[in-house]
Recover the amino acids of this structure.
């Protein structure tokens, strides 16, 4: 049984005083998981094991670095490649040959693309993609579906000329500080609702860019992706697929390759470099050439560790058939989770693809407390858990079986708590806060 | 004598076909230095030595990673700290304790500040700073001086409602693809021209943010920085100092600490982490709390190598009195460069501070060809040279004396070429292209 991480909790309370929000990523705020109880910090991470500041060891059955560490933490092959370029100097006045190698690698994996640019985070890569797309067509309006980061172009969707409507569309994505001149430039549509995109097109003859995550939790229905592609072609808009979360998770490359629907630009980050800052924008010849007509330049985009990590990550994925293995793991998890929830008669919807599972309790107002109780009890069992699982190649069967055994036990606790109406009583701290809502 | 880097030139020509612009940073384009001759890529970099793809060894007397590698390439202490966190796992679902340590470190170095946020590149850190400042005051208009990156907020200054004025203010910073709704939101003023800022203030009652590099090539005259501070206070604007290039170069922290003028927000990148992607936004309590009122969040801002590199870099700078050493080195360089240029009667203005020197030939239309010839002949001598020197702690006296000896020789060549009007004839490739112009 795990003891509460006193050092981690103390450091988190200190961090909130010196770092607004406590951390640089909303999805790493302790209050989203287990307020006043979450271990918050790690000393060491290896495979899917994490050691907190108090020396407690956990199995990460939640996000594996918010989806970034597909091969597992501190993967020895990726680390070796990165440490080599560090020893050789990871930055200089001259360029890194690795970025040319990576560019070639990415366009080979995506034969519809011919050119690549790089950045170091997903958010800035998306901002670059949108800049290039806008420069290409000279049309500013963007229709989008899904989550695409913190940049002005995207948060502009939550601006309204009527101030009291701020924040309505995407709760939690507060656009304060985004210039109001951008109001009306980013127009949302829901996944699998082609009629919403059609409406945007009908009402905005100047639409120039369509941005979407090709997959998130739902499969495309009724040829949704093909229809988006057709609309983009018809109106001459640049189609951008945001593969920051979906890329390299289901296959070696963008998930759009599985759907056989090809964008004009695709953006990768996270999974492509196993935890080292790296992101890529790939695209078709003519669209990408528009990058030359606008100023997009930053010093740290030229360091060497990022491309070296990406090359090593992608090579290992190909060699070890990593995504095939993860799909198998995810299916095994899914089958057993369905079995265990039925056994305890727990109403919880499981959506996604096997390698990216999402959980939703179906108890209305009690959902958040139930989720908090699940996280609390699983933490005691030695697992980091929340409302989903980003499957990793590091999830070996022994870990998963241990996890399933604990889930069985904890679902039993939840069942009893629901029956006896003691969910809130069993919580040893406040109920978890909600994050932002994704437009799905 | 160095031989032309065939492999490097070939790879650069290949890169331009697959990466728009060939590289992610304008200032690393080979055409800015020595078209068709520049080695372009490095295999290895250590101290201030760089080995190109053909095995040629150069001394970098130009930018040391565009100012990022103040301690020198592959600094063993910084590399050791980074490799340690890589071995321990550089990313996980939990947070890195190093970012709290770095936040404490930075506010301790800058007692006017109490809070910090982090990103991984200078450009995105500046975009975050401007977002926070706009959120704080709810006033969108930004007055700025200097160079601040590729983001929409900044390039907006080159937008005009009259399209034919595009690109006028900051030549080379093409704003194509920046939404026109941002026109008029970023208003430029020149360094040491307080009357230009006063005019902006008089004409824009809704000015909310003032952004500037506290130092670039000129020293502030007539209490310029103090006057900017007073104006910001008077109109209640947030003052942001962009210390991406000036930070940690002249002292351990922002150069504003030397001038004793304190902003509301300061931004660091480059020099703070010796070549590893890292950037920081520090600020006063109330201003930084506005970060909580807007959505600023990205996964790769939470990895661990960046803060570990920054902590090790700053510690070493303090322990080894790095900036004092660099000042001494810069002064020695400056004194001898002045002597050598006088000896050969070369008209070249040297501006800046000792640790950041900038050169300008004063031969009108011949300037660019002369600069190209200097770079060409110094390359043969085994030096990377261009229109300035970012001094590094790795510049040991033996390197510098070797450099000065070569400069003496090459200035002799330039003198003869000027006298005989053979500058262009001596060039073995095209004249270097110009980069963007900084508003100074």
């Amino acid at each position: 049984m795990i003891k509460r991480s006193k050092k981690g909790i103390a450091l988190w309370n200190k961090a909130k005083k010196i770092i607004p929000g406590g951390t640089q990523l909303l999805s790493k705020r302790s209050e989203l998981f287990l307020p006043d109880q979450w271990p918050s910090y790690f000393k060491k991470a290896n495979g899917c094991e994490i050691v907190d500041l108090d020396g407690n060891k956990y199995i990460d059955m939640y996000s594996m670095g918010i989806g970034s560490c597909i091969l597992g933490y501190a993967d020895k092959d990726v680390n070796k490649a990165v440490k080599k370029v560090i020893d050789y100097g990871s930055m200089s006045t001259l360029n890194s040959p690795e970025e040319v190698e990576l560019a070639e690698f990415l366009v080979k994996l995506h034969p519809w693309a011919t050119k690549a640019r790089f950045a170091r985070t997903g958010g800035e890569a998306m901002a670059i993609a949108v800049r290039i797309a806008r420069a290409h067509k000279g049309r500013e309006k963007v229709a989008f579906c899904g989550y695409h980061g913190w940049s002005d172009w995207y948060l502009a969707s939550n601006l309204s000329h009527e101030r009291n409507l701020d924040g309505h569309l995407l709760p939690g994505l507060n656009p304060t500080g985004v210039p109001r001149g951008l109001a009306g430039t980013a127009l949302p549509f829901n996944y699998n609702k082609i009629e919403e995109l059609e409406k945007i097109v009908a009402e905005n003859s100047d639409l120039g860019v369509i941005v979407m995550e090709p997959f998130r939790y739902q499969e495309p229905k009724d040829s949704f992706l093909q229809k988006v592609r057709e609309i983009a072609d018809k109106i001459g808009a640049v189609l951008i697929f945001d593969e920051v979360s979906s890329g390299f998770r289901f296959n070696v490359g963008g998930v759009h390759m599985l759907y056989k629907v090809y964008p004009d630009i695709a953006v990768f980050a996270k999974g492509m470099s196993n935890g080292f800052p790296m992101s890529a924008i790939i695209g078709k010849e003519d669209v990408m050439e528009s990058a030359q007509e606008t100023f997009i330049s930053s010093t740290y985009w030229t360091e060497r560790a990022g491309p070296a990590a990406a090359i090593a990550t992608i090579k290992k994925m190909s060699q070890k058939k990593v995504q095939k293995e993860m799909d198998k793991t995810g299916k095994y998890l899914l089958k057993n989770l369905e079995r265990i929830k039925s056994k305890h008669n727990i109403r919880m919807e499981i959506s996604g693809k096997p390698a990216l599972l999402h959980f939703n309790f179906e108890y209305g107002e009690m959902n958040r407390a139930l989720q908090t109780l699940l996280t609390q009890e699983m933490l005691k069992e030695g697992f980091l858990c929340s409302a989903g699982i980003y499957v990793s190649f590091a999830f070996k069967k022994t870990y998963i079986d241990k996890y399933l055994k604990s889930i069985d036990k904890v679902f039993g606790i939840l069942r009893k708590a629901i029956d006896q109406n003691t969910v809130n009583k069993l919580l040893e701290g406040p109920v978890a806060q909600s994050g932002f809502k994704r437009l799905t």
In short: The longest strand of chain A covers residues 207-212.
